[in-house]
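S1.2 Input.
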Amino acid sequence: MKLPVISGKQLVKFLNKEGFEVVRRKGSQVRLKKKSLGKIIVTIVPMHKRLDQGTLLGILRQCKISKEKMQENVK
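S1.3 Output.
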């Protein structure tokens, strides 16, 4: 299953809907975090116009979000 090509801004918007909060922004990177089942999940999203597939997959793995869920919600 192929992932859509999205920007960093689109990914941050999607992660906000999934309960992540923007902690800080430094340069072209945004740090987000979420408390889940007593654990804190932290990820960093580069604010590029087009995210590489490997970068996107890595961020989804860190956030424990399936590719299918992202594809349903990001168009």
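S1.4 Remarks. The mean pLDDT is 91.
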